[in-house]
Design a protein that fits this description.
There is one protein chain. This protein is α+β, with helices and mostly antiparallel strands and about 260 residues long. The chain folds into two domains: about 5-85, Inhibitor Of Apoptosis Protein (2mihbC-IAP-1), Chain A (Orthogonal Bundle), CATH 1.10.1170.10; about 90-250, Orthogonal Bundle (Inhibitor Of Apoptosis Protein (2mihbC-IAP-1), Chain A). The protein contains nine helices and eight strands. The protein has helices at about 5-10, 30-35, 70-75, 80-85, 110-120, 135-140, 175-180, 195-205, 235-250, and strands at about 40, 50-55, 60, 145, 155, 165, 225, 260. It has a four-stranded antiparallel β-sheet. Strands 4-5-6-7 form a four-stranded antiparallel β-sheet. Strand 5 and strand 6 form a beta hairpin. The chain is globular. It binds zinc ion (2 copies). One of its GO terms (molecular function) is metal ion binding. This is Inhibitor of apoptosis repeat-containing protein.
């Protein structure tokens, strides 16, 4: 496997050797959040807080307390698929969810392509004859590739954080995703970017999520749903919602002036 492909490996990079991550837990850039955002630690004597993205290779250092690893990643590496899929969240909660920009819609071309790119050449079932859950179908169903130390076919929805592994030949990723989390923002998305007023109104109405394939929920699968290992979902969730608030206040990752330095 490619080095640092799993979140666990990236977290471990922060505890190797005698040195430790130089910033306190009050920073948004913790080993956990950095690993989730795709980074592993690669310190230099001149740059003790340097981190590197496992996918695009971007190096970032000079972290300050308020720097958000997800936002910094995207602002310094606009085309990294990991930065893209991990940075885009609804600006309004409630059904249907709202995005600030049409290109950020979960089922739009840009996001679908980015999810597909996370699978790279690593999906273990891609060449199995007759296998339904190809990388393309996984990406179209909202999943990114998120292998763990124990599971090379683990996928994750970046919106509801559902993680699934143990795929079998006939498993349909849309069905497996939707029957577990019918209210996931991936399914319950408005087709166009709303105005603030219409967003607030629609959020009040609480419309039902769309039924994308008309299938009924069943419990006929051996797939395993599980948490994403050693990450801290509660920490991440709060980071997410504060990112959403920032977006709502028209302060997107792209326009935000950054304190982290691109050293590549
Ligand atoms: Zn990257
Ligand atoms: Zn989901």
């Amino acid at each position: 496997m490619t080095p640092m492909l799993t979140v666990d490996e990236r977290i471990d990079s922060f505890t190797r050797g005698t040195r430790s991550w130089p910033h306190p837990d009050t920073f948004r850039a913790t080993p956990s959040s950095l690993a989730e955002a795709g980074f592993y630690w690669k310190p230099f004597s001149s740059s003790p807080d340097n981190v590197v993205c496992f996918l695009c290779g971007k190096s970032l250092d000079g972290w300050t307390e308020d720097d958000d690893p997800f936002e910094e990643h995207l602002s310094h590496s606009r085309n990294c698929c990991w930065a893209i899929v991990k940075s885009i969240y609804p600006v309004e909660d409630g059904l249907p969810f709202h995005w600030d920009d049409e290109e950020n819609l979960p089922r739009g071309e840009r996001m679908t392509k980015a999810r597909l790119q996370t699978f790279g050449k690593w999906w273990p079932h891609e060449r199995t004859k007759g296998w339904f859950g190809t990388t393309k179908r996984m990406a179209n169903a909202g999943f990114i590739y998120a292998p763990t130390d124990d599971s090379d076919d683990n996928v994750q929805c970046p919106y509801c954080e559902t993680a699934l592994d143990g795929w079998e030949i006939e498993d349909d990723p849309v069905h497996e995703h939707q029957r577990r989390r019918p209210n996931c923002p991936f399914f319950a998305t408005r087709a166009a970017a709303p105005t603030k007023a219409s967003a607030a109104k629609a959020a009040k109405q609480k419309r039902k999520p769309q039924d994308v394939n008309g299938e009924e929920s069943e419990s006929d699968s051996n797939l395993t749903t599980h948490s994403t290992g050693r990450t801290k979902p509660e920490t991440k969730k709060s980071a997410k919602s504060s990112r959403s608030q920032k977006s709502a206040a028209s302060e997107s990752a792209s326009s935000r002036s950054s304190n982290a330095t691109a050293s590549q």
